[in-house]
Amino acid sequence: MENLLEIKDLNVIYKTDEAIVHALNGFTLSVKKGETLGLVGETGAGKTTMCLSTLRLLPDQVGEVVSGSIKYRNIDILKASKKEMLKLRGAEISMIFQDPMSGLNPVMRVGDQIKEVLNLHFPDMSPKDKDARVDEVLTLVGITPERKDQFPHQFSGGMKQRVVIAMALVAEPKLLLADEPTTALDVTIQAQILALMRELKEKFDSAMVLVTHDLGIVAEFCESVAVAYAGEIVESGTIEQVFARDKNHPYTKGLFNCIPDLTSTAPRLTPIPGYMANPRDLPKGCKFANRCAHCTEKCMAAVPEMQEVAPGHFIKCNLFEKGASGQ
Amino acid sequence: MSNVLVETKNLKKYFPHRLGMVHAVDDVSLTIREGETLGVVGESGCGKSTLGRAILRLHEPTSGDVLYDGKSIIGLKSREFRPFQTKMQMVFQDPYSSLDPRMSVFDLVADPLRICKTVPKAQLPEKVSETMELCGLPATYNNVYPHEMDGGRRQRVGLARALVLDPKFIVCDEPVSALDVSIQAQILNLLMDMQEQRKLAYMFITHDLCVVRHISNDIMVMYMGQVVEYAKKEEIFAHQAHPYTKALLSAIPTTDLSRRNRERHVLKGEVSNPINPKPGCRFAPRCPYATAKCSEPQPLVEIAPNHFVACHECSKG
Q1: Which domains does chain B have, with CATH numbers?
Q2: What domains appear along chain A, each with residue ranges and CATH number?
Q3: Is the Cβ pair B257, A268 closer than 8 Å?
Q4: Which of B58, B149, B222, B224 fits a disulfide with B53 by CB distance 3.0 to 4.6 angstroms?
Q5: Phi, psi dihedrals of residue B20, rounded to the nearest 5°
């Protein structure tokens, strides 16, 4: 199937006064039309930077795309004009931000904030239709339309997140970048929202990149998964391939082991030792080497090649090199 | 069985509101034993944090009683309360906002000691470094400020601040929900190690049922300020009775692909308004099994030994 979004070998840095932060290091990812891709990773893995780069929303003067390319359909995002980007954002590609507070204007009624999207992308729509659409989308995300005249501070964190989701969905985008959309929500509400997003996705045949740190959500909600670590994809494949836990990157394996689940009886969890590599001073070789039990000199010397362990299942680890015995 | 350390009796905390009273915690009775963990589960706004704070008197309860080691701590003057305060500590949810950005790690950990004076001044540095070491913060962190640390290390500071007074009871208010999963496991293990070494009692407040299953002995499920189910962990995961508990459990996303197509109880609607709630079951508006009888008050009934449920459907027999 045709790729809707194609990110190739993207390198993004953030320039701060003290140092250069390497946020993305050869980040490669493609999203097919209508696909739901789970992008898993911890803080600092570059998940949010990837979303921001795709929308060209990296902070001015600070964030910079050093090399690589981003293609949406046949548009080269990195070369698109400001005007083209304005048309894309919200209508074609939309983003649900992680922190609901920074996504909402504190001095604007939430209904008006949702309507703003419609004003921008559907100037011909009548005010009455716009109001009806706002009511509809608010009901969809589980907020009674009477609350549309309230301000963000009158909503709880979870409710604010729903407003943000409503804003992202109102224009029915083709590609939805959902950056931890349900992290701030309760499980029963999360189940509702995920069911709702699945429904809308099918209705409009839109693709979605679901950024999350919750492997459970990915397993239930997505068709394929990509695992990010320190600004690169270390493993990608279909849900069945990755969650079979047969062949995994050591980091993915570590992630599986450190989440408590509903069936295990182990008295203690097995955390991944240490902390993520400092993005200001990345190691030359594999970024996970210092936390990895299988680390060899080769891992320290150079970034491992991406290995295809099964059709469509890629792992960036020397353990799976052709001819090597594997794990 | 070990001694009961903390007990609440019909604890209530109401907050005044323009439109009436918000019933944040409504008639909660619980017991926590030495060296054990009570997991309090519920969605945001169900009153679980308020309950934790009311037990520590960070919110003065509206009515009801809190007993520590059999002695009531409600109504004590601050001087009388001080010795209890050092025994009952709290770890906060957000390691980003609960630490003073202008204090170094050493000062942050020393702060409770300087206030409560539980050790002589001369021994203070030793006590602080000992506690920091215990929490995985080597002496190199003495002069580090919170903004220089990531969430996991900050939460270690939060835990060190609670542990430095040698408490017997800690209220952990979502201590790992702001952390990455690999770091979350480190902190959970640290909490469990501390419990084993020091016979600590925890009240572990969380919305994450997987975490609660991992760490707790007893589990209490709250809905809109009330307890809807209260039982041993094994009992609740094997024989959950209340429709709300069932819905919560089925809503948990799991990495087990075989559970992918399980029957889900997706709840409709959301938590209703906790201002002046009606007397009946507060979950009834969202409950798929609701009947006319649900508008009557639902007391907690023991349906199996030490398994309490507030639902007439489950308790009739």
Answers
A1: 4-272 (3.40.50.300)
A2: 3-92+173-275 (3.40.50.300), 104-171 (no CATH)
A3: no
A4: B58
A5: 145, -150
